[in-house]
Amino acid sequence: MDAPAMLNDRSSALALLLSRRSGKARDLGPPGPTLEELATILKAAIRVPDHGKLAPWRFVVVERRAALAERIESLYLADKGGEAGRLERQALRDFVHQAPTLVVALSLPKPSAIPEWEQQLSMGAAIAHLLLAAHALGYVGNWLTGPAAYLPGVAEELGVPGGRIAGFLFLGRATRPLEERPRPSPDDVILHY
After folding, report:
1. Is residue 135 part of a domain?
2. pLDDT tens for each residue of 92-135
3. Residue 141 has what DSSP assignment?
4. How many domains does the chain fold into?
5. CA dihedral for 52, 59, 91, 178, sign (positive or negative)
6. Whole-number Å distance between alpha carbons of 146 and 154
7. DSSP 4-73
């Protein structure tokens, strides 16, 4: 049996791929990526397979977190008919304030001969590239959805009408040791034909 890969090993491209893992957004502390590093991370994110060269994704770097938190709470209350408890509302407000850096990934399929499913797969690949690029620069990421991802009006608030939130991507430094989660056995998920 192979020895487990060192967590967050960046000694080679293969080590990077075999060691990337998520950290909990609430456990990510400063510093986050610099503006230059974030630009590099986002450039890596868009270098993914993209059948038809449609760029069916958008990334929003959230700088005005308090405004977004307020708007998410407002949209949530409107969606729930004003019904939400104090703790539920606080959780909504706190959500976007986790980790030093927040990027929202939005799927934006284009009318095309390219099936929407392929465009959505490209979105997933773009997020994976973003997380790997952050890892390559020594940061930890966490891809979350949750109630805010499914609220009507959030994509429009972020300036991407018609977009669908694929994830809130939190980036920062680990403030505690990262734990490995159970991974599937290759024998359980890899088939041969």
Report:
1. yes
2. 889 999 999 999 999 999 999 999 999 999 999 999 999 999 99
3. E
4. 1
5. positive
6. 12
7. PPPTT--SSHHHHHHH-----GGGEES----HHHHHHHHHHHT-S--TTS---EEEEE---HHHHHHHHH
pTM of the model: 0.91
Question: In this structure, what CATH number is given to the domain that contains residue 127?
Answer: 3.40.109.10
- Measured distance CA(150)–CA(103) in Å, rounded: 16
The pairing of strands 164-174 and 28-29 is: antiparallel
Closest residue by Cα to residue 129 from 192, 41, 63, 59: 41
Dihedral sign for Cα atoms in the order 118, 121, 127, 128: negative
Query: Distance between CA 123 and CA 63 in Å, rounded?
Result: 22
Quick check: helix, strand or coil at residue 144? Answer: strand
Is residue 72 classed exposed, middle or buried when 0-12, 13-18 and 19+ CB atoms within 10 A define those classes? Answer: buried
* Length of the chain counted residue by residue: 193
